[in-house]
Fold this protein.
Amino acid sequence: MQTINSIQDEIIEDFSMYDDWNDKYEYLIEFGKSLGKLDEQYKTEENRIHGCQSRVWLHGEIKDDKLFFYADSDAIITKGIVGLLVRVLSGHTPNEIAESDLYFIEKIGLKDHLSPNRANGLVAMVKKMKTYGIAFQAK
Amino acid sequence: MSLNIPQIRADFPILNEKIRGKQLVYLDNGASTQKPQVVIDAESYYYEHQYANIHRGVHYLSQVGTDLYENVRKQVQQFINAKHEHEIIYTKGTTNAINLVAYTFGRKFINEGDEILITEMEHHSNIVPWQMLCEEKKCILKYIPLQADGSINIGDAERLITPKTKLVSVMYVSNALGTINPIEELIAIAHKNGAKILIDAAQAIQHFTIDVQALDCDFFVFSGHKIYGPTGTGILYGKEQILNEMPPYEGGGDMIKTVSFSGTTYNDLPFKFEAGTPNIAGCIALGTAIKYVQDLGIDNIRAYETELLNYATEKLSAIEGLKIYGTAKHKSSVISFLLDGIHPYDVGVILDNQGIAIRTGHHCAQPVMDHYGIPGTCRASFAFYNTKEEVDVLVDGILKAKKMLS
Ligand SMILES: Cc1ncc(COP(=O)(O)O)c(C=O)c1O
């Protein structure tokens, strides 16, 4: 099992292969498309992440003391972005998730490249995942 | 007369900007228009050489500023052909102007059971103030429904405007769809039923010649930033008699005649509605912006923008899987569209990466999106500084986005 940081480093390396943001978007789009659909039953208001122009849902559940995330969005680039977060954080303990430092976002230049609207969405996604971590940590 | 577009483009410094390494193609003029150098200069010249607070000082600078500021009021009066200078009220913009009317006219003259009529295509700023009023006064908000092409049916207006209607408040041009509404007819129907009518001209003032006396509307509002002027400026025109009957909006300096603890008397029009130190520099530069537009000639602008609209409509329609929302016969230079199966936001991001600025989302008109059952649209909106070459860049960008996203 990889650590949160080793997955982040992997993503940073993936992105470093592209100079052009067009290619990075291509990567995010392909990644977004490769992700499965979230089961309709989890597309609830409670799982909705607000602050994005597109609709985004995040569902979290605990299995063997590890927190697993499942996400979806009706915009494919957003799905790719939330998918990256899921790839980094899903499958770790609530404690690791709550304490994680998501430096890859800064490193791949994602935030600089997003409209303020989508950057807010990104902040909201991270916050929601960490809130899950903290909630399950307490249990 | 045709416009000299290269020369016009040279007047707008921002058009030379590179965005993400690409030449900026600015097609978000519906949200706001860029500023010509003369407007930028007017604002800074005032701060550099003429600045002081207005209306209050006997000293030289205060008088110069007051004259400049009041001259723009005269200029706006002539621009929209209002009968009196004091019918021109400075506001922060369209939203502020509509709220002013809702708060003053609405609170005084609209009561329980009375009706306010809007259209289904209104901007949120012409919906929410009325909803707030209705909550407070128990009046009823109704709307003229949209038809499939994004226009309204005048028969619906005739049916919905009744003696119960106290106010009709409609947009001249839809920011989301480009539809030009038949406001002359709506004004006539409103008046026949004893209702007052407000025209939201936020998307019209930069495209059409306006004559509020010929139109005979009761209120007419617009934002300075959509007519190449500064943000935080706007105009409320109201007929003298109605403005006089309305209570003041905000209380404070400038809007009073005398203040004492036993009672305060209010100033005359237009100052009654202009409490506090206004956006002096902005209003002065708004005058410069209006002059710039007048020098180009509104009719020349309209002719050129129509040419751009027709060219872009033809080019975009030829893209397979692209659907245009808003296909009314009378349209201004706005194209709202979606690519089949692709979220508008994704398209916006890919275009942005190519330096192309369009707007995506609901355009502050969620009921329009609900009407069509869509999350939002991509919207390209054109101004006189845009070119057919830029339309071609947009088309290439859309094709690229389509390829990447399907
Ligand atoms: C038709 C219409 N009405 C009102 C507004 C609100 O204008 P402002 O934000 O300048 O107050 C806009 C701006 O988008 C608009 O397009």
User: Anything to note?
Assistant: Chain B is about 40% helix and 15% strand. Chain B touches chain A at residues 20, 342-346, 348-350, 352-353, 360-361, 375-376, 404-405 (CB under 8 Å).
